[in-house]
């Protein structure tokens, strides 16, 4: 098995908390280079995770001829510029969600990937989960009939004001940070964008949304509802992840579920007569799954599971929600 030589652009918390372990577990990943804004911190990460090289600037990493693929966990405002630069250097890119502040920039990023004959994939680790894929398979099989209603939510603790999630200038707020999970869940299960969106938010004094709710309406009458918020006890890392999918013959309801959680995850299948069946799916490290999947794409074995169409459609949905709530006003 060929191992893809990866570079990591930044020493962000999400890499340290989640993606690093996924990359270590990935069978086709070689940790080649790490770059940070300070060489000292990059060298600390090099030692901790076993990278072969450390750089004190992102530009140096992009100039490294050995690096084939780059993971970008930088703040939301930096995704566009550094993804474009990486693509133009001929690097494949796995960029953290949200891929871009708006759909126009997302489209430009994918255009740059095509022009440079490399892959770009948005880093939605949970989308690669066999649990999520099983839910979609059940829907597509017709087991719960025609889907009429979906709801999904991700509610977490709020954060100290020093956190970039809490600042408008770094594109903070719950829709960008959390709502993209709920919205992408609905998009995956339906396979289509809604025709109409309504949304409202509660805002902090700094102008970020701390709670957002949105309703999706579809041409065939189907409805969906998403909630996201940073409202639970501050800095306690609490989380409420949930979904329900209701069809003409039954429903799928989350039981033991977390968007990026590994382990034994369960859901309830309830038929139209009220009979319930608990189903459990064993889920490996989702971050490993996304890294391995992009690696197989680079080797010519697959195409990205989180596609260009999916990411652009999601960006359009987020655009509409933020416009409706007044986040951008």
Short description:
The chain has helices at residues 13-25, 39-49, 58-63, 79-88, 103-115, 130-141, 174-190, 286-298, 308-325; strands at 4-9, 29-35, 53-55, 69-72, 92-96, 120-123, 147-157, 196-203, 209-217, 223-232, 239-247, 250-254, 263-271, 276-283.
3D structure, described in words:
The protein has 9 helices and 14 strands. The mean pLDDT is 97. Strand 12 (250-254) and strand 13 form a beta hairpin. It has helices at 13-25, 39-49, 58-63, 79-88, 103-115, 130-141, 174-190, 286-298, 308-325; strands at 4-9, 29-35, 53-55, 69-72, 92-96, 120-123, 147-157, 196-203, 209-217, 223-232, 239-247, 250-254, 263-271, 276-283. Helix 1 (13-25) crosses helix 8 (286-298), helix 4 runs parallel beside helix 5 (103-115) and helix 7 (174-190) packs across helix 9 (308-325). The protein is 34% helix and 30% strand. It has 329 residues and is an alpha/beta fold.
Task: Give a quick set of tags describing it.
8-stranded mixed beta sheet; 30% strand; alpha/beta; 329 residues
What structural category arises from helix and sheet content? Answer: alpha/beta
- Total helical segments: 9
Strand content: 25-35%
Order of strands side by side in the largest beta sheet? Answer: 8-9-10-7-11-12-13-14
Shape: globular
Major beta sheet summary: 8 strands, mixed
Poorly predicted residue ranges: none
The string of secondary-structure elements, in order, is EHEHEHEHEHEHEHEEEEEEEHH
Number of strands: 14
How far is it from the N-terminal to the C-terminal residue, by CA? 50 Å
Gyration radius, in Å:
20 Å
DSSP helix fraction: 25-40%
């Amino acid at each position: 098995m060929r191992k893809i030589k990866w570079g990591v652009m930044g020493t962000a918390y999400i890499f340290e908390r989640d993606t690093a372990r996924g990359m270590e577990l990935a069978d086709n990943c070689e940790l080649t280079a790490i770059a940070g804004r300070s060489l000292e911190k990059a060298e600390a990460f090099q030692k901790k995770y076993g990278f072969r090289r450390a750089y004190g600037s992102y530009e140096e990493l992009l100039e490294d001829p050995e690096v084939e693929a780059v993971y970008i966990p930088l703040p939301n405002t930096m995704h566009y510029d550094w993804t474009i630069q990486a693509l133009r250097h001929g690097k494949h890119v796995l960029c953290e969600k949200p891929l871009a502040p708006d759909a126009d920039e997302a489209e430009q990023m994918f255009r740059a990937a095509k022009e440079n004959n490399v892959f770009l994939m948005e880093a939605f680790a949970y989308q690669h989960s066999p649990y999520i894929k099983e839910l979609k398979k059940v829907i597509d099989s017709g087991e719960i009939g025609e889907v009429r209603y979906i709801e999904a939510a991700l509610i977490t603790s709020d954060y100290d004001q020093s956190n970039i999630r809490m600042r408008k200038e770094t594109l903070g707020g719950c829709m960008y940070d959390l709502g993209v999970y709920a919205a992408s869940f609905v998009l995956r299960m339906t396979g289509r964008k809604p025709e109409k969106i309504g949304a409202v938010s509660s805002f902090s004094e700094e102008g970020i949304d701390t709670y957002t709710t949105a309703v999706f309406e579809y041409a065939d009458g189907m409805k969906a509802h998403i909630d996201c918020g940073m409202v639970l006890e501050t800095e306690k890392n609490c989380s409420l992840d949930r979904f329900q999918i209701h069809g003409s013959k039954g429903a799928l309801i989350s039981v033991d579920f977390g968007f990026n959680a590994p382990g034994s995850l369960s859901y309830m299948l309830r038929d139209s007569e009220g009979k319930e069946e608990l189903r459990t799916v064993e889920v490996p490290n989702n971050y490993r799954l996304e890294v391995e999947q992009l690696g197989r794409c680079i080797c010519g074995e697959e195409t990205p599971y989180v596609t260009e169409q999916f990411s652009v459609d999601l960006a359009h949905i987020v655009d509409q929600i933020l416009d409706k709530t007044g986040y951008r006003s």
